[in-house]
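Run log // design_07
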């Protein structure tokens, strides 16, 4: 079986190109012109703020039937979903959040924000790699170093600490 000949210019494409085409129409239904505000929310407002609030939608004002042709478009209202208990803190940060959102979008797109206190979607925490089995030689060294400690709880904590520290040193080759 031979592989089909590749045509000119057929290279692997980033997955983001395909995903972006699917996300943009969904974001448009919520008033976002593009999904970048949703996708880059932690970069725009910072990780601390992004942990407790997220943009839900942009609510644009109803257009007047006979708007003046040279008149600029009225700014939108950003609807934010905020974790319960963080509403007051986020309310005080709204001017900074709006400045960052407008800077990201490149124009004065948003001039108000409305908060909805509601739990954000549950995010899975990054998993830690499993701990390696304790090294018996490192444990013996740690026990020898803590022989003079009389309090048992303190001694066992120091042994665990020493065991991990010594095991790490042996792994990277430092004495």
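design_07 sequence
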């Amino acid at each position: 079986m031979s592989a089909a000949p590749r045509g000119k210019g057929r290279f692997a494409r980033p997955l983001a190109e395909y995903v972006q085409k699917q996300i943009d129409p969904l974001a448009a239904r919520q008033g976002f012109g593009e999904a970048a505000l949703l996708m880059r929310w932690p970069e725009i407002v910072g990780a601390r703020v992004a942990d407790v609030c997220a943009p839900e939608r942009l609510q644009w004002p109803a257009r007047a039937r006979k708007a003046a042709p040279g008149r600029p478009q009225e700014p939108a209202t950003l609807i934010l979903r905020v974790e319960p208990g963080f509403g007051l803190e986020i309310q005080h940060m709204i001017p900074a959040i709006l400045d960052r959102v407008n800077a990201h979008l490149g124009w004065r797109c948003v001039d108000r924000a409305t908060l909805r206190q509601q739990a954000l979607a549950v995010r899975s925490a990054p998993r830690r790699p499993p701990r390696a089995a304790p090294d018996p030689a490192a444990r013996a060294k740690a026990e020898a170093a803590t022989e003079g400690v009389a309090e048992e709880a303190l001694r066992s904590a120091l042994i665990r600490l020493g065991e991990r520290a010594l095991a790490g040193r042996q792994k990277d080759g430092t004495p």
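Residues 16-61+74-117 form a domain with the Alpha-Beta Plaits fold (CATH 3.30.70).
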